[in-house]
Amino acid sequence: MTTIAQLPAQELNFDVLPAEIQQFKSVVREFAQEVVLPRAQELDQAPAGELDWDIVRQGHALGLDRVAIPAQFGGLGLGMLGISVAMEELAAACPGTALIFGASMLGQTPILYSGDPYLQQRYLPLFAGQEPVLACNAVTEEEAGCDLIIPANAVHAINVMTARRAGDVYLLNGHKRFITNAKVATFASVFANMEGHPGATGLTSFIVDLDQPGVTRGPVADKMGYRACLGSELVFENVEVPLSNVVGGELNGMAINMAQSNMARASVAGISTGVAQGALDKALQWCGERVQGGELLYRHQFSAAKLAEMAAKVEASRMLYMLAANKVDNQLPAPEYEPALAKFFADRVAIEVADAAVSLIGARGYLREYGVEKMLRDAYGARIYEGTPEVLALAITDCLYRVDEL
């Protein structure tokens, strides 16, 4: 039975990544800087419903949509550390592009996590085909957001998408919102509540093909940032899902959702770190060229202090997400504390560093053509998905008090 690819248990050397991940990091960096970055402004200003399939195809050729899939299914088998490092490199150029691939891999996660031979053989090889295939993860709803990721709140969830057994299929009915890749995905990992269970206490995980009757793809959201990826709605009206497409059995959706969140938070911290690194790069370039008072800007004490603080935050953020990703790859079940801490810190660092970059660059930082204001808008995106700061604070403090109680 195959589960998520594991790196050999080892202490992570932050100076030297495992050779296969270091090589992949270099390949992704070249792609990000030479292909994605020159198009970042164009992607940001394109109409909300447009997806750059050329970038997706080039990323697919590198394996960016199958980093954690085991080699036996055509994947790279590089685990969460490989995903997180790749997400940082992409996000330094354009976090929206990073999320196209990240969200698709999140849609794969329940299949990988479950170890279900049928689902793995049925869906994972799709990502190794000649043309790219995207997936999505459908959790969030109009009135049920955080209540679907906080177990204690499950009973209070309102108007959650429902599932009902009808012979040899389940019938799904409901409305999912803010789902990245929903407009273009081939299948979705969908969480619905079994009828007869209050709130989301009967949450169950399904893999749903999106090209079947009863599925409607809603309009694409016109977002403040992350505009390269498409966030839209999914409406389900008596959608039939075979029994074989239930992940982990009925009523186990909350546990699966929590597990995938714990795993994914390390990679989202990688995205936020990438945003911060991209903003720092812009600030360093500007302060190394701009002369004020007869000196390059970085030689002025106040500017130097800002740059030093920005650099320290980026490095600390990188260490936290790498530690978290390494633990995810070497610990079952996936840890809760380290990924939550990494994301909590990195999300804030992205905003603070992008804000400082705009301040250092001044009026030009406020103009679209310099790309820094885009980074500031993008920086706020990760605070919303895979756990808000408030949700993460609850997870972190629960872990701290749990340790004290042992």
TrEMBL record:
Its cofactor is FAD. Keywords: FAD, Flavoprotein, Oxidoreductase. It holds the Pfam family Acyl-CoA_dh_1. One of its GO terms (molecular function) is flavin adenine dinucleotide binding. Residues 20-129 form the Acyl-CoA dehydrogenase/oxidase N-terminal domain. Residues 253-397 form the Acyl-CoA dehydrogenase/oxidase C-terminal domain. Transmembrane segments: none annotated. Residues 136-239 form the Acyl-CoA oxidase/dehydrogenase middle domain. It comes from the Bacteria. InterPro entries: Acyl-CoA_Oxase/DH_mid-dom (IPR006091), Acyl-CoA_Oxase/DH_mid-dom_sf (IPR046373), AcylCo_DH-like_C (IPR036250), AcylCo_DH/oxidase_C (IPR009075), AcylCoA_DH/ox_N (IPR013786), AcylCoA_DH/ox_N_sf (IPR037069), AcylCoA_DH/oxidase_NM_dom_sf (IPR009100). Belongs to the acyl-CoA dehydrogenase family. PANTHER family: ACYL-COA DEHYDROGENASE, ISOVALERYL-COA DEHYDROGENASE, MITOCHONDRIAL-RELATED. This is Acyl-CoA dehydrogenase.
